[in-house]
Design goal:
The protein is an alpha/beta fold. The protein contains nine helices and 19 strands. This is Peptidase S8.
Length: 399
C-alpha cells in the first residue's frame, strides 16, 4: 500500500505540472469537462513476494470513448506520432519477424480489440486467420487462464504498441496462468521456443531479485528480452534488474520546435536503481553508472501517462473500457522490443549493444524520479542515467 501511495503522489504531482493539451485537442476537451484531474491508476495490484505486477497506468480523468467518429483521432499518441518521435522505419522494416508479449491471465477480446486499433490507425490487419497474430497459453496450447480485466488492459496496451512501432511484425501473445514469476517465466521460455520470435516484452515487475533464482527464464541468446523498469521512481525492479534483459525506463514526451520536432525529459515515475544481486553489463563499464552491480535502466521511451498513448480495450475493468490513454513503463517496454524487431539484429547481438551504439539514441538530459544515494541513479544527465538509461531510439542503430 505504501508503494501504491507513493506512485499516486508522484504521478499526481506530474499531472498537476503538465498541461493536458500536450496530447492534443481531444484530451483537452475531455479534461475541461472534469472538475478535477484524478491521479491515474495502475491496472494491476501491487506485487507480492514471488509475484509481479503489470506496469500499465490508465488515465482516469478522461472519459473512455466506446467508438471514434469518422476522421477523428482518439486521445493519446498513436502510431504516426510514436514513429515520428523515434525516427523509425516502421513502414519498411519488420516483415518476417515476431515480437512476443508475455502477460498473466487471459484477455478474451485481445484479437478483436487489436483489430479495432489497427483499423483506426490504418494499419494492415493482424489476425489469427492471416497468420499475423497468435495467442497461446504458457504451455503452447489454447487452455487459456482465467480472465482478468486489469491484465487485459495490459495486454491490449502491449499488442497495440507492437502494432504502432512495427506494424509489419507478427505478434505472439503468451498468457501465463498467474502473475507468479514461475508462471511468467514459463511463458517467456515458451515464447523463446517459438519459431520467428526475435524479441520478448515483459511489462511487469516485482522487487529486486537474483538471477540465480529466476535468470534461466530470461537468458535467451539471439532474442532481445525487454523488461519495464517500474513506475514508482527510484528502486530496482526484477526482471529489469536481470543481467539478461534490456531494462526500459520512461520519459515525458512532447512536441517541440527543435529540428527533431519532439522533446523528452525523465518521467518522475520511471523506475531505476542498482541491483543488490546481479552482475553489471560489460557494456556499462564505459559509462559512469556508479553501480558495482547491474544498473537500470538501459534505454527508455515514453511512459508518462500525462503524455500517454492511445489504446483500445473492450474487456471492462473497474467500469472502464473502450479508447483509453495509458502510461507507465508498460508502454516503453513493448516499444523497445518492437524497435529490436525493426532492427532485425538480435541473432548476433546481446543487451550490451546499445552501450556500444549510444550515439544512435536521443540522450535525455533533464528530469528526475526522486532522490537517491548516487545522483545519476535518479537524475537525468548527459550520458547514462537511471530513469532514462542511455536515451531513447533515434532510428534502429542502437538495437
Amino acid at each position: 500500500m505504501q508503494l501504491r501511495a507513493r506512485l499516486l503522489t508522484i504521478v499526481a504531482s506530474a499531472l498537476a505540472a503538465i498541461p493536458l493539451t500536450v496530447l492534443g485537442p481531444a484530451v483537452a476537451s475531455h479534461a475541461a469537462a472534469t472538475p478535477s484531474v484524478k491521479a491515474p491508476a495502475h491496472s494491476c495490484a501491487t506485487a507480492e513476494t514471488g509475484f509481479a505486477a503489470c506496469k500499465a497506468i490508465v488515465r482516469t480523468d478522461l472519459t473512455p470513448l466506446k467508438s471514434v467518429a469518422p476522421n477523428a483521432t482518439p486521445s493519446g499518441y498513436g502510431p504516426s506520432s510514436l514513429q515520428s518521435a523515434y525516427n523509425l522505419p516502421s513502414s519498411t522494416a519488420g516483415s518476417g519477424r515476431t515480437v512476443a508479449i508475455v502477460d498473466a491471465y487471459d484477455d478474451p477480446t485481445a484479437e478483436a480489440d487489436l483489430g479495432v486499433y489497427r483499423s483506426q490507425f490504418g494499419l494492415p490487419a493482424c489476425t489469427t486467420a492471416n497468420g499475423c497474430f497468435k495467442k497461446i497459453d504458457q504451455n503452447g496450447g489454447t487452455n487459456y487462464p482465467r480472465r482478468n480485466g486489469g491484465w487485459a488492459q495490459e495486454i491490449s496496451l502491449d499488442i497495440d504498441m507492437v502494432s504502432a512501432i512495427c506494424p509489419n511484425c507478427h505478434i505472439l501473445l503468451v498468457e501465463a496462468s498467474s502473475s507468479s514469476f514461475a508462471n511468467l517465466g514459463a511463458a517467456v521460455n515458451r515464447a523463446a521456443a517459438t519459431s520467428g520470435v526475435v524479441a520478448i516484452s515483459n511489462s511487469y515487475g516485482g522487487s529486486d531479485a537474483s538471477d540465480a533464482t529466476y535468470g534461466s527464464y530470461y537468458n535467451h541468446p539471439g532474442i532481445a528480452v525487454t523488461a519495464s523498469s517500474g513506475d514508482s521512481g527510484y528502486g530496482a525492479s526484477y526482471p529489469a534488474s536481470s543481467h539478461y534483459v534490456t531494462a526500459v525506463g520512461g520519459t515525458h514526451l512532447t512536441t517541440s520546435t527543435s529540428s527533431r520536432g519532439w522533446a523528452e525529459t525523465a518521467w518522475s515515475g520511471a523506475g531505476s536503481g542498482c541491483s543488490a544481486y546481479n552482475a553489471a553489463l560489460s557494456g556499462a563499464a564505459f559509462f559512469d553508472t556508479g553501480c558495482a552491480n547491474r544498473a537500470e535502466a538501459d534505454v527508455s521511451a515514453v511512459a508518462d501517462p500525462a503524455t500517454g498513448v492511445a489504446v483500445y480495450d473492450s474487456t471492462a475493468y473497474q467500469g472502464r473500457s473502450g479508447w483509453l490513454v495509458f502510461g507507465g513503463t508498460s508502454v516503453s517496454s513493448p516499444i523497445i522490443a518492437s524497435v529490436y524487431g525493426l532492427a532485425g539484429n538480435t541473432g548476433s547481438i546481446d543487451n550490451n549493444y546499445p552501450y556500444t551504439h549510444a550515439t544512435s539514441l536521443y540522450d535525455v538530459t533533464s528530469g528526475s524520479n526522486g532522490s537517491c544515494p548516487t545522483t545519476q541513479w535518479c537524475n537525468a544527465r548527459v550520458g547514462w542515467d537511471g530513469p532514462t538509461g542511455l536515451g531513447t531510439p533515434n532510428g534502429t542503430g542502437a538495437f
